[in-house]
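Tutorial sheet, problem 5. The two components below are modelled jointly, 448 residues in total.
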Amino acid sequence: MDIGFLGGTGSEARGLALRFALAGARVILGSRSAAMGAAAAEACRDTAGVPTIHGTDNANMIRDSELIFLTVPFGAAIDAVRTSLPLLKPHHILVDVTVPLNFTMGRVEYLDQEGFSNSEIIDRNLPKEIPLVGAFKTIPAAILADLKSELNCSVFLCGNSREAKTKVANAASMIPTLHAVDCGGLETARTLERMTALAIALNRRYKRHGARFRVVGLDGETAK
Amino acid sequence: MDIGFLGGTGSEARGLALRFALAGARVILGSRSAAMGAAAAEACRDTAGVPTIHGTDNANMIRDSELIFLTVPFGAAIDAVRTSLPLLKPHHILVDVTVPLNFTMGRVEYLDQEGFSNSEIIDRNLPKEIPLVGAFKTIPAAILADLKSELNCSVFLCGNSREAKTKVANAASMIPTLHAVDCGGLETARTLERMTALAIALNRRYKRHGARFRVVGLDGETAK
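Model answer (structure tokens):
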């Protein structure tokens, strides 16, 4: 299963691509220009030391990928999805990692969009047969790219297609010490996106870069 | 520092009282009737095997406590606070553990209150000199009362008084394997309350009773 990135030149795409490639997946970084995608992929290959990270334009990436991560800035996601619509087929699964945040005066603020999550808003622009899964929202790009650090955290998934969530969970579970948690329907992204804002605020308050969440108590490990 | 519970006969109060008493604190369970408070305390003493859990009416509890936990049902919190107002003094700190949830058709749903958290709504009913700290919202009563289980999780604090948060954090830190995390101002309760709904939903989906959250990465423990 090939894993593609729409907006593959940003830091979240880079971190995820490194982790997935090191876990054995074939990764494709898409960009508006094939040359920029190729350059980002070359830099990732140098860092990861594995040959399975490729770069190209978004159209070629979509054609060759099954999971397509939306790793554009949150405000650009709808345009990116609309532009991609003619290329999307029912075997594709979109994975939305975006989070609507405002950074003002050195503070991070969750941008409330009339009560709806960014995942729900993006999903409105998709035909029913293309499933969207909200995932990886709460894992900081900095810790993904810090390959010396184990992730040791949960990856929270939400979405309205159980089958699509299972595929994303299986992909996520390739990455060591990452624990996939099914959080329910897409509306749960309202919670997950706010948790991202909290993690970023914690990083600032505690002067760290890798604050993230782990669910305790799901595996009969309560006494551990 | 004595720890009181306004609405001390419910399950969240019971779980917290057991953990605090076992950690060495003196605990007072308040109830509308002194007899019911005393009965709840006797049951807790029997379970915990320590003599430092007392029960009385709410007025006596408030007089003798410094930290006062609001452990009434979320919809009853404002009335409970208003009734208590004549007794509250500036040395008191209210700790709000309430979460506005709807249980319908076997599902849990966060009850959005025009975008505001229950903590913020309660706080509007308090004079400025009485600080309110949102805390312990995400830790299930069932795991608190399950004394064989280590908590091994974070307790998330939010509030607008740094001094009050420090006192609540210090009290929380008496409980083994519980890690206090300062999440910022009271508005962060919007996130924390939704996280509670998520934890309850996870318990239902995974057939567990103790799903809770731990922040990873705040203590330079990222490589662990």
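Marking note: DSSP finds eight helices and eleven strands in chain B. Full credit if you identified this.
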